[in-house]
Amino acid sequence: MSEKEGVFDNINYIFRKYSGKEELEKEISKLQSHLFELELDVNTANKRYEKSAVSEKKAVAAKQEAEEKLKAAEVRLQTLEHELEKARKDTSGELYFSRTDRFSKQRTEEFLLALSSVKDPADSLVTVYIAAGSKMENLEYHDDALKVLDSETIAMVDKVDSPTGLVLFYSPDFMITELIVPPLPLKRSCWSTGNTFDTAPVLKLLRTRASILFLVAHAGESLIGYSHDSENLDSFQLVKSSVKAKHAKGGFSQRRFERLRDEDIAHHIDKVKPALRDLIDEYGDSADYFVIAGDRQLAEEMTSDLALDIERVFSSSDIRVEKHNIPDLMKQLLIYRRYRI
Questions:
Q1: 28-43 residue pLDDT tens
Q2: Which of 186, 207, 228 is the last residue of a domain?
Q3: 274: part of which helix (H) or strand (E)?
Q4: Is the separation of the CB atoms in 163 and 203 below 8 Å?
Q5: Which keywords describe this protein according to UniProt (predicted)?
């Protein structure tokens, strides 16, 4: 086995996932084999019926039993074939990812190193970097890039909503088609082909110890803080206030309740703003990014009047603030998303 085949086999072994259609096809194959066996049973029963008048009743019973089993199996096969055809029609126009994951920085690095070990003598491995705020159509030599990618992969890349950009690793034989979405923005769009994947830019971003101001906004409980190296918390403050839970009932009671809840939320925003200004006054000059997570609309209200000359990054991480998880907050903020096509 070549080095390339060995690496491909290892990656496929780790990430392979079968669809429901494949399971249906397997069961249909088994039933078709079973049908063949039942047909043999019917033929055997017919011969026994013809040859033995003495055991006529026994042969007739065996023949009937075999024919009933055959009929039941045929009905089951028709049902499965109908289900399979329906599944094919339902998914024929729908594109979906075969796998999605949320990777820590360490897991992402391991994954990227595994991809970088893949080698192809034909120089056909494709790497595409799309910068934050850009799209595939903005790539330099876009038309040439389209020639080495299939239409389904291009559609899936366009489907991913990522304010920080993304990286595509693609082999024309479809053995590897992976998307990585980083938590911090990619600065440059480019694409290349070669005998290995170009993992260097995303690995450099992953290993960069950026200084980060952050806000995790939730009604009644918001966390603000600063990390000088993207790993350890230098400072944080949990801002808490009383906010009524959402009201399920309707009518005047609900409208009054919602008005009081809105007032509670406005009060919470007013508590967060001065604490955030103090944090920015202390660490704003040394911060590379301002990462915002939690309730985005609420966060925008909290930061609407801030004069902050730092790149803002909206995190896709769903972070719930609890005292016990605050020390690991940076790990939660800097999650990498992985999609397999």
A1: 666 666 666 666 666 7
A2: 207
A3: helix 251-283
A4: no
A5: Coiled coil
pTM of the full structure: 0.68
Show the tokens assigned to 251: 């009518």
Stretch 10-29: mean pLDDT? 54
How far is the C-alpha of 293 from the C-alpha of 278, rounded, in Å? 19
The type of residue at 191 is W
Selection from 129, 140, 124 nearest residue 202 by Cα: 129
pLDDT in tens, 185-209: 999 999 999 999 999 999 999 999 9
Last residue of a domain, one of 184, 207, 230: 207
Please name the helix (run of DSSP H) or strand (run of DSSP E) that holds residue 62, with its range, or none.
helix 56-92
DSSP characters over 63-129: HHHHHHHHHHHHHHHHHHHHHHHHHHHHHHT----SEEEEE-HHHHHHHHHHHHT---TT--EEEEE
Q: How far apart are CA 293 and CA 219, in angstroms?
A: 13
In angstroms, the Cα distances linking 94 to 16, 41, 89 are: 20, 43, 9
Place of tokens 């008048």: 53
Residues 6+ apart with CB under 8 A from 66: 38, 41, 42, 44, 45
Write out the residue range of the structural domain in which residue 152 sits.
Answer: 99-207
What's 152's domain CATH number? 3.30.960.10
Q: What is the Cα 100 distance to its own chain's centre? A: 3
